[in-house]
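Let's do one together. I've listed all components of the complex below, 790 residues spread over two lines.
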Amino acid sequence: MTERMREPSGQTVGAGALLTILRHGQARTRAELVQLTGLARSTVSQRLDALLDQRWIVPAEEAISSGGRPAIAFAFNRNARLVLAADLGATHARLAVTDLASTVLVERAFDLAIDRGPEETLGWLVATFREMLAEIGHSVAEVCGVGLGLPGPVEHASGRPVNPPIMPGWDAFPVPDWLGARLGAPVLVDNDVNIMALGEHWAVRPETDHLIFVKVGTGIGCGIITERHLHRGAQGAAGDIGHIRVTSADDVVCRCGNVGCLEAVAGGAAMAVRLRQAGETAENSRDVVRLVRAGNTQAVQLIRQAGREIGDVLASIVNFFNPGVIVIGGDVAEAGEHILAGVREVIYSRSLPLATQHLGIRASVLGDRAGVVGAAVMVIEHVLAPEAVDLSVAG
Amino acid sequence: MTERMREPSGQTVGAGALLTILRHGQARTRAELVQLTGLARSTVSQRLDALLDQRWIVPAEEAISSGGRPAIAFAFNRNARLVLAADLGATHARLAVTDLASTVLVERAFDLAIDRGPEETLGWLVATFREMLAEIGHSVAEVCGVGLGLPGPVEHASGRPVNPPIMPGWDAFPVPDWLGARLGAPVLVDNDVNIMALGEHWAVRPETDHLIFVKVGTGIGCGIITERHLHRGAQGAAGDIGHIRVTSADDVVCRCGNVGCLEAVAGGAAMAVRLRQAGETAENSRDVVRLVRAGNTQAVQLIRQAGREIGDVLASIVNFFNPGVIVIGGDVAEAGEHILAGVREVIYSRSLPLATQHLGIRASVLGDRAGVVGAAVMVIEHVLAPEAVDLSVAG
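Okay, and this is what the predicted structure of the assembly comes out as:
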């Protein structure tokens, strides 16, 4: 084949398309695949051979007899490759090795200062991934891709951070090249909130078409799923709700230089500052949660009010975007119902009835694992995309 | 074929898929289509015959010689069917008959009171469409679909209005059944702002992935294009920005019962009220535009401030959604640069630099034709969707 359709509506039935059929369904025989695709039998055979050669598929255990000689069914091989996934936050990191179904094979969490710069941080990341692979008896040669979430804006196409405010030294650093050269696999980088949204959607709510995942941690941001896909926006900047102005806070100056930003009143860092001013010991968002859990009245009031401020911003977004579900995640969300109650209170009083009648407002189910699951999903969807597999087989 | 792939990633190559290839590209020979799709030659022939039978395709004028006997190329037939398109507003209507490339063949504009109820309005619509068809020498038998925009929320799947505030008697009225029975073709109904967004995107900015079309008329709403498709949201309620609260107007009661809604301060009806209070003659949004064009200071100040209020809401939406282009349309937008200036002023000062660096904020190019063009596009995309054509051929 010298020419191939490239349009979304185009209908190439390459090796990758056969793999997609097997990956999302049961094992299929050659005859079934011929019938499903309308392709010539010889074409199907040729593509199945290529997929078998590269171990993307395996003969399924049961052979199906169709009258004459038994026909072999082929199934997707989730163990064909490994995925490395990392979720790096401002102060802590979570790393995982997964199979091609995003199942975590080994996982570790660390304290980590992202402001030590890219080379030190990524060097540590490579060494730790190697240790983790060794621990489960595998090698870097089996890795098909690396997924990485970073706590700042990332140009998704190039994988480079774009003026990340809390990551000195990382601006425009070529993360994929640097990591790829050391790990020998394609590297995908995205904003940490985007991968959390992807993970939560994939693992918990795959049937929801339109979902917003709000991370309330040191800062505030959201990941947007529309038509079951991540919406990154024109510059990859979508979801940056932390700097939307809230009505009640026109006198608060934000680290971005503007006044009245949501993050400057309802983010974990801002709440910790207020608690310190009130004489409490609170370094960061985790301390805020600790105080809330201990029943500290000031902290409970503060987090409830933060929920209302976040709800105020989300009420507008509900009118605009009409999501099916809003998921609240991140460190601060672990303080439980207090924050959800504030969010619900404002959204249900401010948003339009049609947009809220079936709206779910829920706490994250994956919690602090959402990021690594999402990073793995991002890699798998990329590596196993029909056109990607076509290239690796045909090219 | 007894079974067919239904997944988006699935790769059915039915008659509809062949039609899609021809529709979005040049004329193709049978051999080229075999090569492009990987289908068996006999399958391609069978499907081309079905498409020729139904006049969806025609032999292209030039026959391409490939050494031996000349091969016939087949092309999409944009004149195979007609589309009826209507954009009904609160007080006026625009009707058009188009071909399958959304080219308007005949068009008319009317004053119309939508509050006279569905049967009277739709009865008039049917009679007028019949007159327009007769005028160009065609009949209802050639119509493949009807597209209709209504000034209120519509459940897109059923085509029924959902508690439309300015359309008494229309709630849950089965518009597609009623019209379909009289026009003998499938009927698609959507919110007027959605079809305007579709029309402007399709005709003016087809290469923009993420676009927001803001209609500023009697009320205020927006249509959202993401990944070049209309985003309707979980309940079809997306884009209802007219009832987002604006900071400056906490004392203004809106017709929705809430206070401080954008529409209650920056909509055409609200501005007309304020101008009347100031002693001017202003019945509706068109009168506001007339006064602005006449240089009335009060009206100019009012519309500039309305632009700022709209900009305030859009600034948050830009942070959240990161569109590539914002288009301002609707009656009031015809007042020109005054409203755009206000919108730009606030968005560029409030939204994040990454989200605004390549953001275009533009006046609608199609103006009051955006709706009928979009209604036609909605019908064409539905009728010519690969699976729809598959059904009409195979079923």
